[in-house]
Amino acid sequence: MEEVGRIFGDVGLGQFQLSLTLPVERGDYLAVEDELHGPVLCQLDDLHRKSDLNLDRARQLVPSQEATVQETLLGTARIIGYRDGQGLVKLPTIPFRSGAHVFRAEEPLIAAVLGLTHKLDAGAYVGLLRNHRLRVELDINQLVQRHVSVLAKTGGGKSYLLGVLIEELLRHKVTCVIIDPHGEYGSLRVPAEKNGVHARFGVESQGFGRQVQEYSPDPTLNPSAKPLTFSLRHIDPRDLLVFMGLTNVKTYLAPLKQIIEAVEASRPDYTMKDLVRAADALEGAVGDQLRERLEYLEQTKLLAPQGTSLNDLVQKGEATLVNLRGVAPDVQELVVARIATTLFENRKKGRIPPLFLVIEEAHNFAPQQGTATCSRILKNIASEGRKFGLGLCVVTQRAARIDKSVLSQCNTQLILQVTNPLDLKAIAQSIEGLTAGMTEMIQSLPVGVALVTGGGYHTPLFCEVRPRATRHGGESVRIVEN
Ligand SMILES: Nc1ncnc2c1ncn2[C@@H]1O[C@H](COP(=O)(O)OP(=O)(O)OP(=O)(O)O)[C@@H](O)[C@H]1O
Ligand SMILES: [Mg+2]
User: Fold this and answer.
1) pLDDT tens digits, residue range 245-290?
2) CA triplet 476, 480, 482: central angle to 5 degrees?
3) What structural domains does the chain harbor?
4) Which of 126, 149, 160 should be mutated for ligand 1, with most atoms under 8 A from CB?
């Protein structure tokens, strides 16, 4: 092992300071030999240069004069641990000695302690451990059972990484439903153009055309999609009230049921227009409200006597894209509310396979301030979905603007560059084990590097995201050509 420095000063059980004789970067893995347990894995969390050039001497230097400076590179390292005889990661219970040698950790030690042994049949290969050739594979069972968040500033690479994740889920025949507000994920059908990076990561270019189907409430604007409507006959009157944005069930449920029953008696395959007409007969403020909201729903054209069947919408082992490109934000909320409710109810009854529901631009669908029509169902899925095999993945550029109870239920976080202080604060509050050094590093991550927490790993990892096997659909638009 290559020695890079020595421990100095007071030594704690969780971290220590070291003086460095060879350059090491923040985030690099180190090893220290423990007398009882052998090599222990550590990670450089912070670095600074200490010099003897004080303010007085600096002031005395004339402009072209070189300064003679004695300097030392000092660092703070966090102790990750060692694997004991039973395969558990443990921390030493006696502090290292001051003066102990610190080495650059070798890959077998890193792989063993972090759990990066190329192992999982149920592993989603998302990239390589930064600066190493070790594969980062997320445990798919954990992803679906314990929810995922993908967080980064705009242009940070969220959709690219989510594309990687969905490719992996499709390879493992996991059923997915993807709420796609910008119509970016249709490109999962198209193989990527291969380049040198693919070989480095061991990725083949591949399209998933046979496993991807697409629906949209606006198939005219999105011609690759089949039309999406919801069946009026199968919608429960309580759900219809939610759909209409009327939360006061006690006031509105009885008159709404009356209208439905009257209309159904004369015409079993009734339409929204029939309901609106029947509401005309209602009097008073309650009648006015119901009529107004039914008219609004009628105009969205989302409800039809025979809607898209659930068996068509959800296909085992396939991804369903719900393309909302060009759809008004209020109608998008209705679509998400209806789909999330249907999936949750039917998953509870075991009528559809376990699945992964992905919500892009999730701050719009489960906002921290105010409510969206679909907020409540998304919060329910976040807190209870795992019991029923309904995994949730939220993707957002504004961690501070998404409902905190949803974010804190996500046990796997994939974080790319985030610079907004409010978003950083929200991330730090929702993730255990994030050090101050890591929070700082998140602010300067290059595109394509993610901090991965959870996903089967006990310590956060920096991961170089693998290239896409399919084409990325969210390329930035060039305004000026070179
Ligand atoms: N791992 C990566 N490797 C190579 N290029 C990447 C990677 N991640 C992102 N990019 C590039 O960076 C750009 C932005 O990525 P992406 O569309 O994923 O960002 P985003 O976070 O989803 O942005 P927005 O918030 O606007 O939706 C794209 O042009 C994409 O090709
Ligand atoms: Mg995006």
Assistant:
1) 888 899 999 999 999 999 999 988 899 999 999 988 888 898 899 9
2) 105
3) 3-114 (no CATH), 123-228+314-465 (3.40.50.300), 237-304 (no CATH)
4) 160
